[in-house]
Design brief:
The complex is a heterodimer of chains A (314) and B (355). Chain A contains 13 helices and no strands. The longest helix of chain A has 27 residues. With 355 residues, chain B is mainly alpha-helical. Helices cover 70% and strands 3% of the residues of chain B. A two-stranded antiparallel ribbon of chain B has the order 1-2. Chain B is globular. The N and C termini of chain B lie close together (9 Å). The mean pLDDT of chain B is 93. Classes of the chains: A mainly alpha (314), B mainly alpha (355). Chains A and B meet through helix 5, helix 11 and helix 13 of A and helix 7, helix 12 and helix 14 of B.
């Protein structure tokens, strides 16, 4: 019991929680924007992969770290655009299109990686983002190591929470995006473009998802591996329901998940002799299902989620 | 101005033509990655055809690959018909495989006539149980089964690793995470001498036939389709929707479980954590290419298996990554999706003034 308390009070535990939460923050925000506009984006898992691969590869080719971030976002936006075209003007099944995007984006990434690097035994490394060392702030007790020794991408994720919150709640654009996910007819009646808003939201959301992937290869690790995304995208789809499509709660959900994941790693080392380690590895996925079950009953889904809308057809 | 209008009578020719066209287009599109990899597409296609149809052995390999895909394709097709989104066939496959080795690799030393049916039944049961849980969460709590089945895949895969390092580990396996081999009398007999194609294929084909008949002709199939087309209307008409959902969940999970049984007891003989290279997920593509028709699943599974076996063989001959097969498979899914749109709607050009 003392051990658990020691873990929960340690700086490294909370720093790790925030680090693990970072890709999920990007992913949940991205999924949130898509779903608020009325479109489920199950392409998320594949878009994570493509973001991870493109970000890493751009840096490996010499584009610089921020060049890699841009490349990842652009690749994510491109696959998002494909999902948008299939689901918005064509109104095709969002489930099937999303799964198709995930399979397509993953195989494009793997094929490209294998073709560029046919005979490597160990994946080539890049120089990843380093922890930002902010004078004075980094030396604060507790908060210093937890907050001020994270990489720039973690800060970008936190910034995005604020930005998405601001756009969704304080701007006409945000109101329009939410309206298009609740009642597209009313948006159309006001002379706004339902297609334009939905497509734009999916493209922007997918770019954010890809940054979640880019964090994996450019900050958490320094290379690209097959299978490295490992269900993180699907976790985000569960967390966005848990977060009731709100940016603030999305941050909370991602942090909760991050803390839980960081805890299971530490418990695994402490109790590894007593219980098989896999029990702990399963825990985050089980937690996601539990969160989903708890949230599902009172979930206030965007009303037009999954419903295609065609112009001139009521 | 472009207008989209539903077709009055979606023609039957579309239902068959579109999947075939999608398959052809996705194969043609593979020329782009082939060129990018510096390979001559025509030579590559030639190698792929040779790799599938070039010898009896090649053909047997293709049928071996198609077997689990028929099972997982049926699992997806039946569930999707009822709009139950079972994306968990990958996990259910492993549940079936675990059940098969748990009973079949020495725990019960019974004659084959007892052991083999028991392995099949337990494997199917384990898969069914794996789909009942998310269906219960959906019906009782409204938890989206897409997310729960996807997450369960990861949980089951970790559970599998735990079993393979624990209770199911082969004591003679030098510490490798693999199960003990299934007893000889518990194995599905091979169909041809010195070939890998096995009688799991026959089971898959028979089940596809039964599913096709039941879906089209039986009351059960009628209810299933009614639930999928409009659950509210089906409920109004007196159909017990939840019972239909649980029923199809059990059957869908059982079929996916049988894919695992067939791979373990028909092909590999023992269980490792890389038994399936994504057969569960590929089954979704098979089902969609088949237009969710069980008979179509057989044809689609043969096509997808050809792509995989052909690409593997081409990859060995020309050094192009075999991820090409995954690319073709995913593109065929997107193509058939767009094709479904063209079958259902027509696109008309209208003048602004008229509207």
């Amino acid at each position: 019991m003392m051990d658990l308390l020691n873990i929960l009070l340690s700086e490294s535990f909370w720093a790790a929680s925030l680090r693990i939460a970072t890709p999920l923050i990007f992913g949940v925000l991205g999924a949130l924007i898509c779903e608020r506009a009325g479109v489920l984006n199950l392409g998320i898992e594949g878009i994570f992969v493509v973001g991870a691969m493109c970000g890493w590869m751009a840096v490996w080719l010499g584009a610089g770290l921020w060049g890699g971030v841009l490349a990842a976002a652009a690749a994510g936006a491109l696959f998002g655009l494909l999902h948008a075209v299939l689901t918005v003007p064509l109104g095709l099944s969002q489930h099937v299109s999303g799964l198709g995007i995930t399979l397509f984006a993953t195989s494009v990434s793997y094929f490209t990686y294998r073709t560029a690097l046919p005979n490597v035994s160990s994946p080539p490394r890049i120089e990843p983002f380093q922890a930002l060392d902010i004078p004075l702030l980094s030396d604060l007790p507790f908060l210093g190591p937890v907050l001020f020794q994270q990489t720039a991408l973690t800060w970008l994720a936190l910034l995005m929470v604020a930005l998405v919150w601001y756009v969704m709640n304080r701007t006409a654009l945000g109101v329009a995006i939410q309206a298009v996910g609740d009642n597209p007819d009313s948006v159309d009646a006001q002379g706004l473009s339902v297609y334009g808003l939905r497509i734009g939201a999916i493209v922007a959301g997918s770019a954010l998802m890809a940054l979640g992937g880019a964090f994996l290869t450019m900050s958490a690790f320094d290379a690209f591996f097959f299978g490295m995304v490992n269900g993180r995208g699907w976790v985000c789809i569960a967390l966005v329901i848990f977060a009731s499509w709100r940016p603030g709660k999305a941050l909370f959900g991602a942090l909760l998940f991050g803390a839980f994941d960081a805890l299971q790693v530490r418990l695994q080392t402490e109790m590894g002799a007593l219980v098989p380690g896999q029990i702990f590895l399963m825990a985050p996925y089980i937690l996601s299902i539990i969160a989903l079950v708890i949230a599902a009953r009172s979930a206030d889904y965007p009303r037009a989620l999954l419903t295609p809308w065609f112009k001139g057809q009521r | 101005m472009i207008r989209i209008e539903p077709r009055e009578n979606p023609s039957r020719a579309f239902a068959i033509g579109i999947p075939i066209l999608s398959a052809v287009i996705s194969l043609a599109l593979a020329a782009i990655p082939l060129l990018a990899a510096g390979a001559n597409p025509l030579t590559a296609y030639g190698e792929m055809i040779k790799g599938v149809f070039g010898s009896v052995f090649a053909l047997s390999e293709m049928l071996t690959r198609a077997t689990p895909l028929i099972f997982t394709g049926l699992a997806a097709a039946l569930a999707f018909r009822a709009k139950l989104w079972n994306i968990g066939a990958e996990g259910q496959l492993y549940l079936g495989a675990m059940a098969a080795v748990a009973i079949g690799s020495g725990y019960l030393d019974a004659p084959g006539i007892v052991l083999l049916p028991l392995i099949i039944l337990l494997g199917a049961g384990a898969g069914a149980a794996g789909m009942m849980a998310p269906t219960y969460l959906k019906v009782r709590f409204g938890a989206d089964e897409v997310v729960t089945t996807l997450l369960l895949n990861f949980i089951i895969l970790i559970f599998l690793q735990m079993m393979l390092e624990g209770p199911l580990q082969d004591p003679m396996g030098l510490g490798w995470p693999q199960s003990a081999p299934v007893l000889d009398q518990g194995m599905l007999p091979p169909l041809m001498e010195r070939m890998r194609v096995h009688s799991g294929l026959i089971i898959a084909l028979v089940l596809a036939g039964i599913a096709q008949f039941m879906l089209a002709r039986s009351v059960w199939g009628f209810k299933l389709r009614a639930v999928g087309e409009n659950a509210a209307a089906a409920r109004h008409a007196g159909i017990n929707v939840n019972r239909s959902l649980f029923g199809v969940a059990a059957i869908s999970g059982a079929l996916a479980g049988l894919a695992g049984v067939s791979e373990v007891a028909g092909l590999k003989g023992y269980l490792t954590s890389d038994l399936s290279p994504g057969f569960g997920y590929t089954g979704i593509v098979v089902a969609m290419l088949a237009g969710l028709s069980p008979a179509g699943v057989v044809v689609a599974a043969l096509f997808i298996a050809s792509v995989f076996v052909g690409a593997d063989s081409m990859s060995r001959a020309m050094g192009v990554s075999s991820f090409l097969a995954d690319l073709v498979v995913s593109m065929s899914l997107l193509c058939v999706l767009v094709g479904g749109f063209l079958a259902k709607y027509r696109i008309l050009r209208t003048r602004e003034a008229v509207s």
